[in-house]
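Hello,

Our lab assistant flagged a job as stuck in the queue for most of the afternoon. It eventually completed. Since we weren't sure the result was trustworthy after the delay, we are filing this so someone can double-check. Below is the sequence as submitted and the structure that was eventually returned. Let us know if re-running is recommended.
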Amino acid sequence: MALADTLTALGTTALAKNGAQSLGSHLFPVWPGAALAGAALPVACLPGDNLAIHVAVAQATPRTVLVVDTAADPDYGYVGEILAVAAQIRDLAGIMVEGSVRDVVGITRCGLPVVGTGVSVREPTSERGGSVGETVHLAGGAQPVRRGDWVAADEDGAVVLARADTARIVAATIAASEHERTVLDALSNGRSTLDVLNLDPSRVTGWSGAPVAARAVGRP
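-- returned structure --
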């Protein structure tokens, strides 16, 4: 399985538990079910202008994810249907923009995974400049995004995996996911989370001293 597919299958919640860094709770997929993962190409726009995104789409390698810093300006829809279609034709894996988008219906119809912070009908200019390939630091994230880092996003959030740490994080997440499956199996067989996760209920006021028996899933 390709690394991008592995990241998508594991999901951002599991990745974040095992070392991937959150890029903020303000980023969400434009259309339900959209998910993306790939090597990052950082893009920095000047406020109110998306020329740098057009440049990035034109020169990005296939399966790249554009990670766009708009200087946290929410007043413009930096990505619309035209850019989404252009990115899809270039076989990009998706666009993650810390800013608003527009043409939501068109982006959804296109099918390109796009992640943003909101929606705005206000169209930016495409003439002022910006940068492509230089490190960006999204306002909601603790870690900068560098060219070649790996990023992933889904309906739970968006994360970045530093290039040097990617293999370690993925291995740890796979191991943790296998353990989680054993926990879910135990719950299905009637055990409680207190028991399976070795939690101390005596710290909670009102603990009765004996757990209520759980009904095993699938049993009468």
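-- support follow-up --
The delay was a queue issue, not a problem with the job. The result is valid. The CA atoms of residues 79 and 101 lie 5 Å apart. The first strand starts at residue 21 and ends at 22.
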